[in-house]
Amino acid sequence: MMKILVADDHALFRAGLRLVVHQLEAEMLEAHDWQSARAALEAQPDIALALVDLSMPGRDRFAGLGDLLECAETVPVVVVSASESVLDMKRVLDMGAVGYLAKSETAAVMLNAMRLALAGGVYVPPKLVLVGKANGFGLTARQVDILRALVQGKSNKIIAQDFDLSVATVKAHVGAIFRALNVNSRADAVRVIEKR
Fold first, then answer.
1. Percentages (nearest 5) of helix, strand, coil residues in the chain
2. Residue 121 has what pLDDT?
3. How many Cα atoms are found within 13 Å in the side-chain-facing hemisphere of 189?
4. Half-sphere exposure of 60 (CA within 13 A, CB side)
5. Average pLDDT rounded to a whole number, residues 84-96
6. Residue 29 has what DSSP assignment?
7. What gap in Å lies between CA 150 and CA 94, rounded to an integer?
8. Residue 182 backbone class (left: φ over 0; alpha: ψ -120 to 50; beta: rest)
9. Alpha-carbon span 190 to 147, nearest angstrom
10. Residue of higher predicted confidence among 80 and 192
11. How many CA atoms lie within 13 A of 96 on its CB side?
12. C-alpha angle with apex 8: 6 to 14, nearest 5 degrees?
């Protein structure tokens, strides 16, 4: 049976991931910090995939990940993190991880990302893809966040609630996004980003 390592310091999150891992008909091994994750990789060379939280006790986030990636050698590592920072996503992938999943993702997205990693692919978060496309238009980080929400079909009111902004501020950002993309509607903005 295939073995998947889940390293996270929150037992409840590990329990939730067990449901996803079982859909792959895999045995789940657990670790609760960087040291136990490394020990599991050393003791079980046949681990097929490692899902690792970026913030665990024992090491700084990126130092811990770097050490684990070095130890993992041929085992694909996917980071599963509460951070939705584009900088964190980019750094993790640049270090050699084969995926970055935000903990806010659905079980279906996590399952698909795991299947992709097991098949030798790299899971790039949609937010990072969108930022890459949007950066060519000179948008601010906040405007990229709002553009992502537009692509998801969210209304100005919902976007305002999500980012703790006034609706007027969201409208101003949407207007700036339209000008940067040279469009007049949300649908056109989505089309421009999807074509890039």
1. 55, 15, 30
2. 92
3. 26
4. 3
5. 88
6. E
7. 28
8. left
9. 8
10. 80
11. 14
12. 65
User: Cα–chain-centroid distance for residue 56?
Assistant: 17
Considering the entire predicted model, what is its pTM?
0.72
Q: Tell me the one-letter amino acid at 15.
A: A
The domains located in the chain, with CATH, are 3-124 (3.40.50.2300), 128-195 (1.10.10.10)
Query: Cα separation of 114 and 38, whole Å?
Result: 20
Mark 84-119 as b/e (b = at least 16 C-beta within 10 Å): eebebbbbbbeeebbbbbbbebeeebbbebbebbbe
124: left (phi over 0), alpha (psi -120 to 50) or beta: beta
pLDDT at 85 over 90: no
The per-residue pLDDT for 33 is 94
Looking up tokens 């694909």 gives 76
d(CA 49, CA 115): 10
**If phi over 0 gives left and psi between -120 and 50 gives alpha, with beta otherwise, what is residue 145?**
alpha
SS (H, E, C) 71-114: HHCCCCEEEEECCCCHHHHHHHHHHCCCEEEECCCCHHHHHHHH
What pLDDT does residue 66 have?
93
Q: What CA–CA distance (Å, rounded) separates 86 from 183?
A: 25
Report pLDDT digits (tens) over 58-72. 888 799 999 999 988
